[in-house]
Design brief:
3-stranded mixed β-sheet, 460 residues
Length: 460
């Protein structure tokens, strides 16, 4: 293929009638000067008379190492056949590096105020095999020595600060603020497959390993991604002990916790629109039947021909939209979401030492977790035919009623931005404000242990 030549077995009518008596004939097809292509074996292999594409030739000559695995190993199949395409094996380094640091400060502001804070830092950078350069295309890489082009750095950090105040001899107040963040990236170095080509070429189609290019540009592997999450919370707890209201081991407490979480923000985009020279079906939108030799597999012939001749069979690009009217963004604009989920928690608890042998503990908590909101209004909702939020129970009841009558209920449903439904609602669902959690228990110490049971405590 480097020389613009393909090898296929030709099976004519006699071969198809009796392949034992007339076995297939291995045949050489010169894609520039050959005229033995086509079902009758008398058609030019390239009706244009151009042969191997000069851009493809430059890429294969300068940036593709010679194959060293005729068996193709696990790649053997429709692309790597051991004749036109053979495999390439080599070892690749995937270094890992991690850094960790921690710092803490404790300080007393007098006898009643104690401050503490701590910061933890961690960074992990690891190379992956999502994108590999075997052709020495990128600076620092060597032809024939696989080099990882993708890294997945992770950088979590944690910051906490607390202030403890002894308000009186029997009242203590703790205030704590915490921020926990995780930053992750899926980073890819990418460029043009060859200096003369604007597109990222994919001879033989969208593949990670089965592609005749110095490095893979398949979308599933080379998308740049980031995962940024941050959780922040502030809590205040007050502890009070007075008279018989509490025992030394169980004091009344009250607390307020307020926090927010900003979950994953993710982006997926490719810098260059991949351009396929052949695909999984063969020639994509291009018909190669006029040059298909008798008995050759049509998909393989079309795929190999497209790769050698540099014929674009498919091209793809992902577009994103934004705004209330879902306006089309410019090409190569990243897709990302930034969602926030506020939550609140308040509780009160008290232990009352009513008698020497009886203690009552009671309390009440309240929690509120708000629905997630996307910063730029890109959150979507399942809607009905009118474009309004789908009523799940009404939908299921309608399906049930139709099924009981032997009918089908299958209305049109779709998706719309939350802000475009319900008269411009803010949340995908209404917050629930009734999450109260009362608690109560008692501890009783019966006097029977003095007679024959020894120490005995009974809790209810």
């Amino acid at each position: 293929m480097r020389n613009g030549i393909l090898h296929f077995d030709v099976c004519d009518a006699a071969c198809k009638a009796d392949s034992v008596a007339s076995p297939p004939v291995p045949t050489v097809f010169n894609m520039q000067t050959g005229s033995n292509c086509g079902p009758a074996g008398n058609s030019p292999c390239d009706p244009r008379g151009l042969g191997i594409n000069p851009v493809v030739l430059q890429m294969w000559t300068k940036f593709m190492p010679a194959g060293n695995d005729p068996s193709c190993g696990t790649l053997f199949g429709s692309r790597c056949d051991g004749v036109n395409v053979i495999g390439f094996k080599a070892n690749m380094a995937q270094p890992y590096r991690s850094d960790f640091a921690v710092a803490r400060i404790d300080h007393d502001f007098g006898s009643k105020w104690h401050f503490t804070t701590s910061y933890r830092y961690y960074k992990l950078t690891r190379a992956t095999n999502s994108q590999i350069d075997i052709g020495g295309f990128f600076p620092g890489d060597t032809l024939g020595t696989p080099a990882s082009l993708s890294a997945r750095p992770q950088q979590p950090w944690y910051l906490v600060a607390g202030l403890t105040t002894n308000i009186t001899s029997n009242t203590t107040n703790d205030s704590i603020s915490v921020i926990c963040a995780t930053f992750g990236r899926g980073m890819i170095r990418r460029s043009r497959a060859v200096p003369r080509a604007w597109w990222a070429l994919e001879p033989l189609g969208e593949q990670q390993f089965n592609v005749l290019a110095p490095y893979n540009v398949n979308t599933q592997s080379i998308r740049t991604r980031f995962w940024d999450g941050r959780i922040g919370s502030s809590a205040m707890t007050s502890l009070c002990s007075k008279g018989t209201t509490c025992s030394p081991s169980a004091a009344p407490t009250s607390a307020i916790t307020i926090g927010t979480s900003a979950p994953t923000m993710a982006a997926a985009s490719t810098t260059l629109p991949p351009t396929r020279l052949g695909d999984s079906t063969g020639g994509g939108l291009i018909d190669f039947s006029a040059t298909l030799p008798a008995g050759a597999t049509s998909s393989k012939w079309a795929r190999d021909s497209a790769a050698v001749l540099g014929i674009v069979t498919d091209s793809q690009i992902a577009y994103t939209r934004a705004g209330a009217n879902l306006a089309l963004n410019p090409p190569l604009t990243h897709a990302f979401d930034q969602s926030t989920i506020p939550y609140y928690n308040v509780y009160f608890s008290d232990s009352w030492h009513m008698k020497p042998s009886f203690t009552l503990t009671y309390g009440l908590g309240w929690t509120l977790e708000m629905p997630p909101t996307e910063k730029h209004g890109k959150q979507i909702e399942l809607v009905d035919q009118s474009g309004q939020q789908l009523d799940t129970m009404a939908y299921l009841n309608a399906r049930k009623a139709a099924a009981l009558q032997g009918q089908v209920y299958n209305p049109e449903v779709g998706f719309a931005l939350v802000g475009n439904t319900g008269g411009g609602q803010k949340y995908p669902y209404q917050p629930y404000y009734g999450s109260f959690s009362p608690r109560g228990c008692c501890c009783m110490e019966p006097q029977l242990h003095r007679w024959f049971l020894g120490e005995n405590v009974r809790r209810q």
